[in-house]
Amino acid sequence: MRPNRPKMKFEKGKNPVARVLKMLIGFYPVLFPLTILCILFSAATSAIPALFQQNVIASIEKWFKTGDWASAKEEIVPMVILLACLYLVSTICITTQTQLMAYMTQGFLSKMRVKMFDGMQNLPIKYFDTNKHGDIMSHYTNDIDTLRQLVSQAIPSLIQASVIVTVVFCIMLYFSVWMTLLLVVGVIVMMLVSTKIGGGSAKYFIRQQKAMGKNEGFVQEMMNGQKVVKVFCHEDECQKDFDEINNQLFEDSYRAHAYANCLGPIIMNIGNILYVLVAMAGGLFLLSGLPNVSLSGMAFSISILVPFLNMTKQFTGNINQVSQQINSVVMGMAGASRVFALMDEAAEADEGYVTLVNAEIDENGNISEADKHTGKWAWKHPHGDGSITYTLLRGDVRLHDVDFAYEEGKDVLHNVSVYAEPGQKVAFVGATGAGKTTITNLINRFYDIADGKIRYDGININKIKKSDLRQSLGIVLQETNLFTGSVMDNIRYGRLDATDEECIAAAKLAGADDFITRLPEGYNTELSNNGSNLSQGQRQLIAIARAAVADPPVMILDEATSSIDTRTEAIVARGMDKLMEGRTVFVIAHRLSTVMNSDVIMVLDHGKIIERGDHDKLIAEKGTYYQLYTGAFELE
Predict the structure, then answer these.
(1) What domains can you pick out in the chain, each with its CATH number?
(2) pTM of the predicted structure, to 2 decimals
């Protein structure tokens, strides 16, 4: 069982960077403000030397005029000492800031991945059916990495540059309004260029992130289907398809970086031109003796011009730094938008309130809740008046006039009714696409029906919590999924509190014990890559053992023996018979030999049940089932 984690709601349509900042503050309510204070102090410290420089130059000018070095020394030395102290504190702040940002950035990414994965676990099956798995994986790699650049580089740099520009601008106004206005004109030109080029860069960076996800999705799809590609000699076509996708990624990446890379040099050279213009204007001011307009009221002099030129370089340099971060900001926004899109996906709706509990029955037939696995289950049904009733789980599953469509207007099931009484074995046969697996998906509530009702022990399954509903249903799918870990771990996946002895008993029941004991390390043999070191049949036997150890009241076997040879199937059949004893079982099979002993066989065709009855009854009717059984035509 996964630990409960606090959920965080996200407002749709909110600026991605603002959402990142909000989350960062939420994760680190103390460290983040402390880091910002360090950035602010170090930025302000780097901006104010112009004031000291002006005072020092003014003192030196006075010394040249008066020759009184002692007085000048008394003014200069304290300022130099104070400035040195400020730089020392600034160095401490910068060191603290970089260490805190490194810690918070990696912690932020870790928490984001946890939240993404936790949210993904709650998404409906439909999401994974309609989105490429490689594209989803890209959220955890490429998109998260763009957030790393945004948090660790772009945001601190933007804050620092903004503070420096603001402080320097105020000092400039303090020194000379006319010179500041000249600088503002140049800065406006720089901003217009940044907006024009940065806008083009942003458009292509967004395209790049999407193309990267598409690229990874295609590669993942080809890796999974490599055997099919080679069997059908489809390598050249796959290469052409990949080249097309990869070329699109190249084009988008090239254009994005072409815009971004030319922005820096252009802004830098505009800044250099502006520096020359300010120097020329300052020289003209000094030569012409024009009156200075400033907040300080000081006359324009060398002691103002020299620091003003330094501030011009500092001002344009930080504007250039901001333009350089457009790259990271735009990529971060594109990545954050994709990450938040995954987080904003609506979780699987679950309005159920009836839960599944272990049950104990006393000699009077009264049902109570047990705190350990008893092999008996009951539905715990709370009522509005505060009372609770327990209903013994019997495995009575009924579908009443069910309609369903994966896409609106394209019915997969129409007016389907199925009655599975406790302990019955119900089989579905029919051509591929007839709706057999869809029925079991609806019982599991992987999808919800469009019309009709499904009742489980008389309870509408919409009232049963999905996790409890699925816990009561053991399922063996046609496609077997094994996870990285030992064979024992994969069997125990069916019930995490199962003992080794129970897992081994389940493997023996499924007929898997024989081959498992012959593996290099037996039940401790490590599996990886979906059990690629096992045959398909062996993987399916482990999946059957996994369902057996769960000990569910209802079993769904979707082509459970499709990958097992006839001899092994006979062995498994004996174990399966034991596994199915006392349980309601739904069987989907193409091999009619596996459904012959079913209590009820239902023949589906284009989403409708066209025949139902046991084997003998359907053979006697000489309908579709009879033709399938005698080989008059194939299921496909």
Answers:
(1) 16-104+128-344 (1.20.1560.10), 355-390 (no CATH), 397-630 (3.40.50.300)
(2) 0.71
